[in-house]
Design a protein that fits this description.
Mean pLDDT: 84
Low-confidence stretches: 1-92
Strand content: over 45%
Oligomer: single chain
Helix content: 10-25%
Number of helices: 9
Length: 848
């Protein structure tokens, strides 16, 4: 696929790092080519989503290696072809296993061989060498290398027999190490089948395969129904529809049509997907999907005021949906390409935490009307050539947001709001994104891969805020003119994966990121001056990350692994609003160190033990190059300009013990310890109103966080008919912050418990039952008598589901499900409590 020439300003970046792998990411395909167990330890690759980061490690010696590969690869290819022809000629002279003498039945004798040994690579989905063995027409057409793979009536001239008999070096099927070789008996059956005409008595096109699953039921709720909908994700009352429906039809041996969807009311949960695929040509995918998220309508809770909580009992929800269409081209020997369009939306009303005042406490509920739309144009291309794998993904996104927040409050007593604040936001942007990823295995123990991402965003925003207090004839309006935003981002990554020995895997990676942002508003409200002024800001950010991993398996029944990461980030931020009043230029530099070491060992068959330790240290230095506030320059300007340094250090220890005394029993115990300290260094701080120093500055321990988590899980299958799994966790955590003598600042601590269990029992081949139970409980708060609030979180939740399934016949089955939910929350005065019972019936019909 032809690529555009990069600009000179980026040429060195491309020349020094155009290859990469798993330190920041390795694709499954590339990892399999290494044939090493280390692949499961590695990370992720650059994805199609433009917001995701790319994986990386820089290799400065690449130009020489690339030049050598380009120079010698044609020579090696010619030698390999010549050698392959010679080997093929020699192989055809070697004796083959004799053909079976009996009459061969395809369904009985041949199809099981294809199913177990061939269809994984030569099925309908991306067949290797474009050779398919799932239908007679495609099989007799042969693959991309030769049309004589199967010659009816002559098994000797059929290359398939040469490959499965392992007479052609480097073309053995299944490939050595990828599956068990066929026995002489199986090769003989294949020979006899071809000699007898290669009949395919199951080659009839499948008729429509249809599945329909209607559902009906209802839920009865006693208590706070809005809280029930928010936690459980469903609505109360009657509901029903189609839990699932699907239809699949094989239109031709190489053409398939499928339809799948669901539709449930009244929760507006529906989806439909249509896929048409033709092998060696392409596909068309069309779909629509929508689901609803519910929100509780209550605000805060404070027993010191009356009423202590407000609940407007509104029906708050937001519908999330998308519709898409994709056209794909997948021709043999061509790059694979896909062009598509996607539409996403969010519409409805949601609760927010911008609670309004109510008799001196900010506890009155707030909500926001949501209206967000996104149009996305997509293009993806993938190509493999000369050992290289290249992927390119491009997106253009058109986004608009017209949300309106509504905050009500009670200023003069009572239970009815008399203050209303409405904020309307009108934001839109256009963003173009492109991700390029490439990889190549240079040896069976060495893989290099790399990626580059570029994004540009141009947006505009405007807002309008109205504050209305009818009792005082107040109608204050704040309005801005359009505020522009521009952002450019570049990410380059490269990585390498080495497995020089069977017991050692090494990977190195690097990733560099550049971001520039700038915003400007000609007329933005200044709340302190009471008028609109110009405002502007710029942000420049650079981040460099390096990562190294290793995995060592030479010690019997033991794996030792470790990783080290170094990350440095520099940020330069400039802000101004009415330059004579406010101007700030801040420089920040962050250094992150992250290291971990661990092992897993299984000295006996019944035991497995693992442990891991990780240290993370993040240090940030701040410098205020310019600091003007209210026309005054200097260190007296308070938060956050007086902060000079911040340090966050974390230690995490994890361990796990697995015990398997029998095949039907497994127990797992886990433990985690987390300890984090926060510290900072400041300039002296002043209170301009009191004209006094409130802090002498210097180093201070801001706070600490400590947590311990214990876990236990059990899998039991005492008899074939019964399966049980259960797990429980207990966590205790405590957060402490510097109080500076203030009695209202106290530790935040508490306990969290969880229990999960599921059991399945089969009465017979047609009848089974299943029960599932989930429990969670938290008692987490500050016990803050001095300040009164926040009170923390104290709740208990139970969820139970019991199902009975019955198979009527091969085409019909039914299930009946009972659900129970209970939620209590003392920290909200039990105003959010509820109890719910539900009964649902589902039938499944299949044709044919």
């Amino acid at each position: 696929m032809k690529q555009s020439q990069p600009s000179r300003s980026h040429s060195n970046r491309f020349e020094s790092a155009v290859v990469s792998t798993a330190a920041f990411g390795v694709s499954p395909k590339a990892s399999r080519s290494l044939n090493r167990s280390a692949k499961s330890e590695l990370g992720w690759l650059p994805s199609q989503s433009a917001g995701r980061r790319l994986g990386a490690v820089e290799t400065t010696a690449l130009p020489t290696a690339w030049f050598r590969a380009a120079l010698y690869e044609p020579i090696f290819l010619a030698m390999a072809l010549a050698s392959g022809l010679a080997n093929t000629s020699q192989a055809q002279q070697q004796p083959l296993p004799p053909a079976a003498t009996e009459a061969v039945d395809f369904a009985r004798d041949i199809q099981p061989i294809f199913q177990n040994s061939c269809l994984r690579c030569h099925g309908p989905e991306k067949p290797r060498s474009h050779f398919r063995l799932d239908n007679r027409v495609s099989a007799l057409a042969g693959g991309s290398k030769d049309a004589t793979d199967i010659v009816p009536g002559d098994s000797v001239k059929s290359l398939l027999i040469q490959y499965v008999a392992h007479t052609v070096p480097d073309l053995e099927m299944p490939p050595i190490g990828k599956g068990e070789a066929l026995t002489a008996r199986q090769v003989g059956l294949l020979r006899a089948w071809i000699d007898q005409g290669a009949s395919w008595n199951t080659n009839q096109l499948a008729s429509n395969a249809i599945v329909v699953m209607p559902e009906a039921g209802g839920i009865s709720v006693h208590g706070n129904t809005a809280k029930f909908r928010e936690l459980e994700g469903v609505t109360d009352g009657f509901s029903g529809g189609l839990e699932k429906f699907s239809m699949t039809q094989q239109l031709a041996p190489d053409e398939k049509l499928s339809l799948e969807g669901h539709a449930l009311a009244p929760q507006q949960d529906f989806g439909l997907k249509l896929e048409l695929t033709k092998t060696d040509l392409g596909f068309v995918h069309v779909g629509v999907d929508q689901w609803r998220k519910y929100y509780a309508t209550d605000g805060g809770f404070d027993p010191a005021v009356t009423p202590s909580q407000f609940n407007p009992n509104e029906d708050l929800f937001v519908d999330h949906g998308r519709a898409w269409v994709d056209f794909g081209l997948d021709r043999p020997h061509w790059p694979q390409m896909a062009l598509g369009y996607e539409y996403q939306y969010q519409s409805g009303n949601e609760s927010t935490l911008d609670w309004g005042p109510a008799n001196g406490k900010n506890i009155y509920p707030a909500r926001q009307a949501v209206d967000e739309r996104t149009h996305i144009l997509k293009f993806d291309a993938t190509n493999d050539f000369s050992g290289w794998h290249v992927e390119d993904s491009a997106r253009v996104e058109f986004y608009s947001e017209k949300n309106q927040g509504s905050e009500a409050g009670i200023l003069s007593g009572g239970a009815v709001p008399n203050e209303f604040i409405n904020t309307r936001d009108d934001y839109h942007h256009v963003q173009g994104m492109n991700t390029l990823m490439f990889e190549k295995p240079f040896r069976d123990w060495c893989l290099l891969t790399g990626g580059f991402y570029y994004s540009r965003l141009e947006g505009s925003d405007a807002f309008n805020q109205t504050t209305l207090i009818p009792a005082f004839s107040v109608n204050n309006v704040l309005t801005s003119q359009p505020i522009t935003l521009e952002r450019d981002s570049e990410i380059f990554s490269a990585a390498s994966l080495f497995t020089p020995m069977d017991y050692l895997t090494l990977s190195l990676g690097t990733q560099n990121e550049w971001t520039h942002e700038q915003g400007f508003g000609a007329s933005v409200p200044d709340l302190e001056l009471g008028l609109n002024t110009p405002a502007a800001s710029t942000l420049d950010e650079f981040k460099a990350s390096q990562l190294a991993n290793f995995r060592f398996t030479k010690i019997p029944r033991t794996v030792i692994s470790g990783a080290a990461q170094l990350e440095e980030e520099t940020v330069s931020e400039y802000q101004q609003e009415d330059p004579s009043q406010f101007m700030r230029n801040t420089a920040a530099n962050n250094r992150l160190y992250n290291a971990q070491i661990g092992f897993t060992t299984s000295p006996w068959r019944t035991f497995e033990f693992s442990a891991q330790f990780r240290r993370r240290d993040s240090k940030t230095d701040y410098g205020q190059l310019v600091d003007i506030y209210n026309g005054v320059s200097g260190p007296s300007n308070g938060y956050p300009a007086f902060i000079l340094n911040r340090d966050i250090r974390s230690d995490i220890f994890e361990t796990k013990l697995v015990w398997r005394p029998a095949l039907w029993f497994k127990a797992t115990a886990t433990y985690q310890l987390n300890s984090t300290d926060y510290s900072s260094k400041t300039d002296p701080a002043f209170d301009l109103a009191a004209i006094e120093q409130v802090s002498p500055g210097g180093s201070i321990l801001d706070g600490s966080y400590n947590a311990q988590t214990y876990g236990l899980g059990i899998n039991v299958t005492p008899i074939p008919k019964l399966y049980f799994y259960g797990a429980m966790t207990y966590s205790f955590s405590r957060a402490v912050t510097a109080d500076n003598g203030d009695p209202s600042i106290v530790p935040y601590r508490g306990d969290i418990y969880t229990v999960n269990a599921i059991a399945t029992y089969a009465f017979n081949t047609n009848t089974s039952a299943q029960a599932a139970y989930n429990f969670s409980c938290a008692n987490y708060g500050e016990n803050n008598d001095a300040a009164g609030i926040p009170l923390g979180l104290d709740y208990t939740r139970h969820d139970l589901s019991v199902s009975l399934m019955r198979k009527i016949n091969a085409r019909c089955s039914v299930s009946l499900r009972y659900t129970f939910s209970q939620y209590t929350e003392p920290s909200s005065g039990n105003l959010n409590d509820f109890v719910a019972h539900g009964v649902f019936a589902v039938a499944t019909f299949k044709w044919p």
